[in-house]
Amino acid sequence: MPHVERGMVVGLFGGSFNPPHPGHRLVAEIALKRLGLDQLWWMVTPGNPLKSRSILLPLAERIALSRDLARNPRIKITAFEERLKTSFTAHTLAHVVARHPGVRFVWIMGADSLKTFHRWQKWREIAALVPIVVVDRPGATLSFLSSPAARALSFARVDENAARSLGLHRPPAWTFIHGPRSTLSSTEIRQAARPVPMPGLREASGGLRRALKD
């Protein structure tokens, strides 16, 4: 895991990043600025339990693509979940929080993830463990905010104007941040980059890396 000091406020931004794209970077940059984070851990996961692994690029490729894209000294690219042998956010957060007493962690997600948050394993435990910031994504914002998890946690919502203090709140606490939005999605990028017949994942990821650099 990246090095941190007691008293720091650190954002945790996890995902399969299959592949990472400028929309992911936009979410990370908005969270860094609006929350006043000391660091943001860009956590490339082994895989998402709610998504098929059949189209998953190799972990090393997704790490390399994320490093090419992020380019911010406060954004730390990491894939420590591979060593933890878990794909479940609840397990990861419990481990991270226990290992770093005195550090304040905030979980970062896009609004599209809020829509399905209630399907995550132990999602209520996640909400009780760390504050959560939800960054707006293109789509029906009102439907995101009316999702089962958003309704269940409505009592713990922090006003967006107080987002900078979110890391100091005792969980459950969450806020919804509006701002610039990107229409890019990993699914659309994979589909656009897929020739017929489909090559090996390594060749496809090489093309995505060149596209991101361009």
Short description:
This protein is of the alpha/beta class. Helix content is 40%, strand content 15%. It is globular and about 40 Å long.
Number of strands: 6
- End-to-end Cα distance, whole Å, is 30 Å
Strand order in the largest sheet: 3-2-1-4-5-6
Overall mean pLDDT stands at 83
Oligomer: single chain
Question: What portion of residues is helical?
Answer: 25-40%
The arrangement of helices and strands along the chain is EHEHEHHEHHEHHEHH
Total number of helical segments?
A: 10
Question: Your description of this structure?
Answer:
The chain has 214 residues and is an alpha/beta fold. Helix content is 40%, strand content 15%. It has 10 helices and 6 strands. Strands 3-2-1-4-5-6 form a 6-stranded parallel β-sheet. Helix 2 (59-70) runs parallel beside helix 10 and helix 4 runs parallel beside helix 6. The radius of gyration is 17 Å and the shape is globular. The model is unreliable at 184-192 and 195-214 (pLDDT under 50).
